[in-house]
Here is the input.
Amino acid sequence: MTTAVVLMAYGSPGRIEDVPAYYADIRGGRPIKPELVEDLVARYKRLGIEESNPLNEITEATRAALESELGLPVFTGMRHWTPRIAEAVEGALAGGADEIVGLVLAPHYSGMSIEKYRAQLVDAVDGRVELRFVERWGDDPGFVNLLAERVAGTSAHVVFTAHSLPARILDEGDPYRDELLKTARLVAGAGGIEDWSFSFQSESPTGEPWLGPDILDHLDELAARGVEDILLCPVGFVADHLEIRWDLDVEAAERAQELGLGLDRIELPNAETAFIQVLASLVRRHAAVPSAG
Ligand code: FEC
Here is the structure.
């Protein structure tokens, strides 16, 4: 059997001119207020993203490192930008693959997240080859230990964070929040952390309630409780996305400063070797014929 990997990511605009089309893709055709587009453009600009985007370079570095670790072809497919998931599938098929392993660079399952990647992948494969899909990996011991090492020994209050989603997912029985809390508990346990809490971040202004507490409100609560130092540990993101570099490094950092709180965050796994080994192990466990290594 010839296996190829389709490594899926949310996607990030390549250049600043791409932002309106990228945002339109995220909204799936639903209207966007012009001021929201302007605000998004301004956030990317303030991070220095104009002609190229470092996040896409991280994704490419992750792809290349995973390919060399596995000795199998790995194709990047973005949910909201190029190269699309469908392009990745065509690349895999053109290379002669008769099995595709789909892996998303987001650890926790939600019908509003992982399921959407899967739908694009299934559509693109269209039954032409065997498809294996890694549905969730937030409790993978390698991933948990990687994060635990980054929080172990801190004397700060650890706040685990992840992207929020509309609160209605709870009524729909979606496991997303439970899976996030499980990762937080496992990382705290493995890192010997007793003083911790969980907070959502990066909610979108869609006009409906989102899961909370939001990180900015949570910082207010922690300051009111007398906490002095905080270490942020994102568990739902694996790379330096806008959500990390803007929502945490700029917005949360500003709020912490106003409140007189010390605020630090762990380094995200990005394309680090230890993280590539976690991804490789996930692929090996899901492929029909395990690869060497
Ligand atoms: O360029 C970058 O670095 C940002 C990439 C990016 C990642 C990401 C991750 C997640 N999102 C999730 C859910 C939603 C829902 C909406 C939504 C909106 C946005 C917007 C941008 C954006 N998201 Fe995202 N998300 C990223 C980027 N996200 C930009 C639009 C502007 C804004 O709200 O700031 C609301 C959609 C709607 O309006 O209908 C829902 C989830 C994740 C984590 C899982 C994953 O990575 O797939 C869940 C990275």
